[in-house]
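User: Quick sanity check before I run a bigger batch. Here is a single chain. Can you write out its predicted 3D structure?
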Amino acid sequence: MNYYFFYLISYLIIFFGLHFISKKLNLYDIPNKRKLHKSKIVNTGGIIIFIFYLIVIKNFEFNNVLENLIVVGFLIILVGFIDDRNNLSPAVKLISLSLPSVYIIVSNNFIIQSLGNYDLLGTLLLGKVALIFTFLSVVLLINSVNYLDGIDGLLLSFVATTFLYLIFLTEDKNIHLLIYYLLIPVIINLIFNFFSFGKNLKIFNGDAGSLFFGFLISFFLIYFNLYLDIHPIILAWSVWLPVYDFLYITFYRLINKKNIYNADNNHFHHIILKKFNNNHFYSVGLISIINVVVLLVGFLISQISKDFSFLLFIFLFIIYVGFRLNINLKKIY
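Assistant: Done. Predicted structure follows.
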């Protein structure tokens, strides 16, 4: 526990130091017509968190596979940092995210072989498409989590909830300890997102942070499935929010013949934000409550029936799509 307090203080020192350096290097997120903030904000939060993670895993022995995942995440951080500065094209960004993802999949044999075993549905084996399914799942989830980084604090709130859920799913003390340390900068940055003590300390994750967390969560889920034998549907509930929103936004853009890569303000969090008159704190609070409630309901249903949980996951997505389409129709009429 003393170590935990020591690293909490250490992160604060790192945070203040690198935040100051970021300002001197002019590493800001510049406001534009689509973005909600009105003044430039330092956007190196993800990089600062990653540096802290490297320091932690250098000084502790938690889990070799998960530690290696964090190290390889440097490539994701690099892609995000360049994208924050130069707006990479979708093709270049996709290739850049794919390479480290493929490396982790191949080097660790991180291949999802099935969607789980069910009493009525049987074992949903993926067979020859297992490798392709795994790759697409990782890349799409990375981008899905990136979509959450649209309003202050939402991404970090989601990450914190997901990490806590993963702690709940395993009794492995080393993984518990690792995630506790991973949570230190997440909680601190979340506090500075909402309570910036004057705008001087406000900080954004940047694409470096959002892409890295998407990468991290994607492979953590695969690890929990393959190494800890956690059922896929139990893990799926932890990412229902980014997955539902990503699939809906993608389908909506395709149906309306829009470029799927063009950013807009049609995400679920933008709808909630509008209802609260652009109050980020209340918006993130409500979305986080919804996320936790759905997550807990999904988990409890999974304990009763994996079949029903699987079908419920699909049914709720249909409900979600209907809800979103109804809102868009109201905008038109």
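The CA atoms of residues 298 and 312 lie 8 Å apart.

User: Great, the batch can go ahead then.
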